[in-house]
Write a structure and sequence with these properties.
The chain is α+β, with helices and mostly antiparallel strands. It contains 17 helices and 17 strands. The protein is elongated. 42% of the residues are buried. The mean pLDDT is 94. Keywords: ATP-binding, Cytoplasm, Magnesium, Metal-binding, Nucleotide-binding, tRNA processing.
Length: 472
């Protein structure tokens, strides 16, 4: 057992914040051993954790001192057992109480765990009073790092949440993305916020872009609190109405929604891009599309193919895009990263990788979506809408649009292949046929003939090819 984290001078709210943070990641089979003297706060900790798991269905959580065991239904999908073994006379009584079986498929919290003998890889939560400060506790978390390594991270999140005045909030995990970032929603009555859990020291670009966008009246989430050294941010919660969900539920809104997306880009492109973002020029686009040649051809059964793709992209960019001044591109500007708020301005998410790039780049990102079909008529209308609003040359813009669409989709093919083969995230393979179809549409533009030749001989992601990648 290893020391994982220590929280000194924890008041009642900090203790609850830690319990609620831990509740967000517990899973069936997890056992928490709650240690400490009488009055140390073990039941207080357990009560906060159980009620956090139950949310709106929260029950009273009495101390199990006399009943020995209390069980609770968990709306998150498992059962919770809360035991107090102080009055246990022999470890064999664990079986009679049903605890041994519960430890296999329930979340089990045990006070006075030393009375029950050895436990299966528990997380030990030790609470002890702070001398001369009766209302404060020192909390020590210990366990096997392989099983409980992320608990130290949850302790850091609890500190941030407590410091920001959200110590009483319930914490729930939000769906992640293809990155290593995690998100948690905080709910405290009518108040909501979102925790971004990123790698330590990596939040600088997000903070810089947030400030840049908000200073120009674009609706990026307000940063409520931060610990940039540890890579933690507490953000304004813009809600659940992702454009993707709105379009799924109300497809008739597509013309209006995509019109708003185009208008936002027109407004965004009226500003000079900040000097702290990466310049996504021809050489950089060529370098990034190398992801395709590195991963997809070999996985599809034609190793060594696609080596001329990057050079073709660089040459075409020099001919079709280089003379156009770059604008700010949010880079992952699509239906999964924009919040629909009716007549209010669109909410923006996931813009930390913003770049200085050709104006067509984000329009392609929105209209050639790897995850969902966009009506070709809507796509054509929005391209024309952007051209009319900005006054750019229509033929030049459409040629650049086709090139950047092909480059983005080829890179996505490489990323999806890498996610499947290296990271065992295979769900993205289902999007490959759509992405390949987008590539073929873009290659149909006469200006892209050199890129089409560079891709000759590389097979489409047929079911057989996808199965091959899955098997690898």
């Amino acid at each position: 057992m290893s020391l994982l984290a220590t929280i000194d001078h924890a008041d009642a709210e900090m203790t609850e914040a830690l319990a609620r943070a831990m509740a967000a990641i517990l899973r069936p089979g997890d056992v928490l051993a709650l240690e400490g003297a009488v009055g140390a706060g073990k039941t207080h900790f357990a009560r906060a954790l159980i009620r956090a798991r139950q949310g709106d269905a929260a029950e009273d959580v009495p101390s199990p001192t006399f009943t020995l065991v209390q069980t609770y239904d968990d709306p998150l999908g498992t059962e919770i057992w809360h035991a107090d073994l102080y009055r246990l006379t022999h470890p064999d009584e664990l079986a009679e109480l049903g605890l041994e079986d519960a430890m296999q498929d329930a979340i089990v919290l045990i006070e006075w765990p030393d009375r029950g003998g050895a436990l299966p890889q528990p997380l030990t939560v030790h609470l002890e009073p702070v001398p001369d400060f009766p209302d404060l506790r020192r909390i020590t978390l210990s366990g096997a790092p392989a099983r409980w390594g992320q608990i130290a991270r949850m302790a850091e999140i609890a500190r941030l949440v407590h410091r920001a005045g959200f110590g009483g909030a319930r914490m729930l995990p939000l769906a992640g993305d293809a990155s290593s970032r995690r998100y948690f929603r905080l709910q405290d009555g009518d108040r909501r916020a979102v925790v971004m859990d990123a790698s330590p020291g990596t939040t600088g670009p997000y903070v810089a872009m947030t400030q840049w966008l908000r200073n120009r009246q674009f609706d990026a989430p307000e940063i409520l609190a931060s610990d940039q050294v540890d890579g933690l941010l507490l953000l304004e919660d813009l809600g659940d109405d992702l454009v993707a969900r709105v379009l799924e539920d109300q497809p008739r809104l597509a013309p209006r929604v995509y019109g708003r997306l185009t208008d936002l880009l027109v407004a965004l492109h009226g500003y000079e891009p900040p000097d702290f973002v990466l310049r996504l020029d021809g050489p950089e686009l060529a370098r990034q599309v190398g992801m395709f040649a590195e991963w997809y051809p070999e996985a599809a059964g034609v190793p060594g193919a696609g080596t001329e793709v990057a050079e073709a992209v660089a040459r075409l960019h020099a001919r079709l895009c280089a003379s156009t001044p770059p604008v700010l591109g949010l880079r992952d500007f699509h239906a999964e990263n924009v919040i629909w708020r009716g007549d209010q301005p669109l909410g923006l998410l996931d813009f930390q990788d913003a770049v200085a790039v050709h104006p067509a780049y984000d329009l392609v990102s929105a209209l050639q979506d790897a995850r969902r079909d966009v009506d070709p008529e809507v796509e054509a209308h929005e391209i024309a809408r952007y051209i009319a609003a900005t006054g750019v040359d229509g033929d030049e813009f459409r040629a650049a649009y086709a090139l950047l669409g092909a480059q983005r989709s080829l890179r996505i093919m490489g990323i999806f292949t890498r996610l499947a083969r290296r990271d065992h995230k295979r769900r993205y393979l289902a999007f490959m046929p759509r992405v390949w179809a987008l590539i073929q549409r873009d290659l149909a533009h006469p200006a892209l003939a050199p890129l089409a030749r560079a891709l000759e001989g590389i097979p489409a992601p047929t079911p057989e090819v996808i199965e091959r990648i899955t098997a690898q």
